[in-house]
Amino acid sequence: MRSNLSLDSVCISPRTCVLAWFASAMLLALLFASGGLLASPAGSGQSAFWRISKGGVDAGYVLGTIHSEDPRVLDFPAAFIAQLTSCQVFAMELVPDVATIGRINEFMQYPDAETLERTLGRERFERVMQALAAYKVPLDWKVKMKVWAVMMTLSVPVPETGFFMDFSLSLRAAGSGMRVSGLETLEQQLSFLENMPVAYQLALLDQALSDYQRVDELNDEMVDVYLTGDLARLQRLSEEQFSELDPEIRDYFLRGGILERNQHMVEKLLTLLQEGRVFVAVGALHLPGPDGLLALLRQHGYDVEPMPMPFSPVAGPGTNQAEALGEPATG
Question: Does residue 329 form part of some domain?
Fold first, then answer.
């Protein structure tokens, strides 16, 4: 069945496009806020790209993604596209259709008469407005944002095109006739943010305000590490960036932002795998660890083997990229 996901189904007006990119940035930023707390079991740090099989029969692929518009993570070679389109289903965290984007916008804003300034106080509110100025979001929308939404937004670079890695892959999948399916509901993804104690939100916001002018630099560093496919190194970098967080806040993010969501995602993924070959694209830091998606798949009888990263910076001089993509990584 062909998916109805398309660029037109997501961005129906300039304002909607801006808010869609804005919401997407906020959602995916949480990976870097919590991923460094995970411990990788042997082998799980070898790659962010994995082949799934069961009983010797191919079941699809898992690609750990990164929230970025960097051209290096959007330059997919033909051999990788063939692997993508060999599957019947493309599974991502959330499908970014119009209905979902509208509901995300509702989650991110205070209802009724509540405002961001009333929650923050005048001085902190003015700092937030200055920091958000570059994001080109309408003022009437910014003043109603919830604290966690501001904090998550300032944790990622200002969107320029909206063609983030996950979104770009989903459009390619839909264009090839693959069914695009979400692995979790919006409530499952956002409940831990909605229920976060206000004190935690304010502490995280203050850190975001201190660091937001370096967010481009930090993102570039993340992409550089991501392109190597070394999840363990990506985790260490994430941990360094968030080492100053209170341990209670980090534990809260770990439980709600990663571990509980992993359980929801694998439950849906197991159902999809019963229906055919699945290409899974989720944030890279959902993969490793004893409670990561790779370990959970193994627990349910699936084999996962690392593949070379499907990006040219990984291939060494003289490497045939098509051949490399067809063979499991060694080591």
Answer: no
CB 162 within 8 A of CB 11: yes
Q: Cβ contacts of residue 262 below 8 Å, gap of 6+?
A: 286, 291, 292, 293, 296
> What pTM, to 2 d.p., does this model score?
0.82
Q: What is the mean pLDDT of residues 67-72?
A: 86
Residue 186 lies in a domain: yes
Count up the domains in the chain and report the number.
1
Q: Which positions ≥6 away from 46 have C-beta within 8 Å?
A: 229, 230, 231, 306, 329, 331
HSE (side-chain half, CA atoms, 13 Å) at 167? 26
For residue 128, the cross-strand partners are none
Nearest alpha carbon to residue 279 among 64, 1, 6? 64
Residue 82 lies in a domain: yes
Instruction: Specify whether the backbone of 276 is left (phi greater than 0), alpha (psi in -120 to 50) or beta.
Output: left
Range of the domain at 41: 7-309
Report the alpha-carbon angle 169-170-176, nearest 5.
95
Q: Is residue 315 part of a domain?
A: no
SS3 96: coil
pLDDT band at 242 (very low <50, low <70, confident <90, very high): low
**Distance between CA atoms of residues 328 and 55, nearest Å:** 17
The answer on pLDDT for 43 being more than 60 is no
Q: Could you tell me which residues come within 8 angstroms of residue 206 by beta carbon, excluding any fewer than 6 positions away?
A: 124
Residue with tokens 């300039």: 14
Show Cβ contacts of residue 111 under 8 Å, excluding neighbours closer than 6 positions: none
- The span from the CA of 107 to the CA of 261, in Å, is 18
CA distance 20 to 172: 18
What's the pLDDT tens digit per position in 118-161? 999 999 999 999 999 988 888 888 999 999 999 988 888 888 88
Q: Do the beta carbons of residue 291 and residue 262 sit within 8 Å?
A: yes
| Residue 274: both structure tokens together | 């019963």
C-alpha gyration radius of the chain:
19
Q: For the purposes of burial, counting CB atoms within 10 Å of the CB of 113, is it exposed (0-12), middle (13-18) or buried (19 or more)?
A: exposed
